[in-house]
Amino acid sequence: MFDELSKYKQGNFFFQATDSLVEVCNVDRNKYGLYLVYALRKGRVELIYINKSGPPEKPGLVASPGDIADDLRENLLNGYQFGEIERKNSWPVQMMIEDIEALHVHWYVTYDDKNKDLPATMKSRILQIYQGIYSCVPRWNKI
Question: Less packed terminus of the chain by CB within 10 Å, N or C?
């Protein structure tokens, strides 16, 4: 569905509510880009969330990757979602509420030595594609 993401360094991992997100997250530090979260529930797979990490939204503002605290790993683990609660704590609760068996997280490094595509720009493109197909945003993007 998102062919434009195929050129980036990428990875994925599964997360169950009983797992430690810190332990299963396989994103290296100082990587910047976006991630897509798919819910596995009752034999179905649904894209439920699209998000991004730093760098700043204007090119050229980054002296070095270490200047940005909001890398992909930091954002995935400690970013707030479902109120003022870090994802590593809020995701398991939300998964139980929604009866989600597992999350399959796909991550893409869009801003590095090879590519300088701003994560905010890429997130916007992917959301536009999704909205063009489904006429809405993924459900966790609405919350």
Answer: N
C-alpha–C-alpha distance, residues 118 and 33, integer Å: 7
Query: pTM of the predicted model, to two decimals?
Result: 0.89
Provide the 3-class DSSP secondary structure of residue 15. Answer: strand
End-to-end CA distance of the chain: 23
The answer to whether residues 140 and 68 touch, using CB atoms and an 8 Å cutoff, is no
CA distance 49 to 38: 7
Mind listing the pLDDT tens digit for each residue in 62-107?
555 444 458 899 999 988 898 888 999 999 999 999 999 999 999 9
* Token pair listed for 99: 């009866």
